[in-house]
Specification:
Elements lengths: L3 E6 L6 E3 L6 E3 L2 H6 L10 E6 L11 H13 L6 E5 L5 H11 E2 L4 E5 L12 H13 L12 E5 L2 E4 L4 E2 L8 E2 L7 E3 L3 E3 L13 E2 L7 E5 L6 H8 L6 E6 L9 H12 L3 E6 L12 H9 L2 E2 L5 H13 L4 H8 L11
Parallel strand pairs: 1-4, 1-5, 5-7, 7-8, 15-16, 16-17, 17-18
Antiparallel strand pairs: 2-3, 6-14, 8-9, 9-12, 10-11, 12-13
Helix pairs in contact: 2-3, 3-8, 5-6
Length: 342
């Protein structure tokens, strides 16, 4: 029986065509995209397609759209063997992270991909990314189970766990890196899967979550940060979680105004998560004097989470209605492979 794959087109460079007069990139429909890649027919898969009524630039992505995407996958889950999401690269890592939490107990492959050049461009990377993503979404092991039963991201011959990637380059075809986790697969003459890096099949049946909270803020620490700015950010109405990008292993200023302002926010019920602004490595609260105070006041360690995963995980947990100790406990657990074991 041939595999049945659903392609969801949200927008992005992969589905753009250049206006010959103005030179501006504008979207065109999914059928035109697939027509550009006749090689797909060789697989013999049954391909179904769903496209957003109005393709969006990924810079306009929102949690509401993430939930809409999760619902589409949920609606087609029992009739399809795998899923490919065509998405703009700018916020693809956020969407991949969000879906990894929204699609609980996922045991089929969801691949996000896109391109740096439009699919009609002579030197485009879109064709290879699309062809290989479809092949990965359909891949099964000897027992008929999905080879990669998780949300992942494919770009430039590398398959990554979706909640482990960052977009690091705006120009290279190699646009994404996974600084703290190895690739799930690499495409060359054949696709080489790294089974020890892939999540095991999960039991219990798919559960699609339908709530995320945007009561989350972030602050990247920098030398010269003022007390006034910190105070204004922490007094933003309706903010439940503050994500701080600390220096190195999660370090922060030891000035009294900084620790007192942060401590006051926590005492009033706010939650503070500390991640490193370095692309690789992990937060180790208490390792240095400059993070010991954070540990003592109850700041939550983000360990080796990417910024994208930390933001989306916070939105997800708040969407479940979890705050206080319940949020803190859940944040420290790996829900879908987003955290290394510590």
């Amino acid at each position: 029986m041939s595999k049945r794959i659903l392609i969801l087109y949200t927008g992005g460079t992969i589905g753009m065509i250049q206006d010959p007069v103005s030179g501006i990139l504008r979207p065109f429909d999914l059928e035109q995209i697939l027509a550009q890649v006749p090689e797909i027919s060789i697989f013999g898969y049954q391909l179904d397609a769903v496209a957003f009524e109005q393709p969006i630039d990924s810079s306009n992505m929102t949690p509401e759209i993430w939930i809409h995407m999760a619902n589409i996958i949920g609606q087609h889950y029992h009739t399809h063997d795998g899923f490919v999401i065509l998405h703009g690269s700018d916020t693809m890592a956020y969407t991949a992270s969000a879906l990894s939490f929204l699609l609980e107990n996922l045991d089929k492959c969801v691949v996000l991909t896109g391109s740096q050049l439009p699919i009609g461009h002579v030197r485009t990377d879109a064709k290879e990314n699309l062809i290989t993503s479809i092949e990965i979404a359909a891949a099964c092991d000897e027992h008929g189970n999905s080879r990669v039963p998780e949300v992942c991201l494919y770009f430039d011959y590398q398959l990554y766990r979706g909640n482990r990637v960052i977009k690091y380059n705006a120009e290279k075809f190699e646009a994404f890196h996974s600084p703290n986790y190895p690739p799930l697969a690499e495409a060359g003459i054949r696709i080489r899967y790294h089974s020890n890096a892939i999540l095991p099949k999960r039991m219990g049946g798919l559960k699609v979550h339908r709530h995320m909270s945007t009561a989350v803020g972030s602050l990247k620490l920098f030398p010269g940060l003022s007390a006034m700015l910190l105070n204004q950010i922490l007094h933003t109405p309706g903010m439940d979680v503050m994500l701080i990008e600390g220096f190195g292993a999660g370090n922060a200023p030891t000035a009294p105004w900084f620790t007192q302002t942060l401590g006051s926010f926590i005492q009033k019920g706010g939650l503070v998560v500390d991640i490193t602004q370095c692309h690789g490595g992990s937060v180790e609260l208490g390792k240095y004097e400059t993070s010991a105070a954070l540990l003592q006041m109850g700041v939550i360690s983000g360990h080796d989470l990417t910024f994208e995963a930390a933001i989306c995980k916070s939105m997800f947990l708040l969407g479940l209605g979890w705050k206080g100790e319940k949020f803190t406990e859940a944040f420290g657990k790996s829900l879908s492979g987003e955290l290394s074991k510590f």
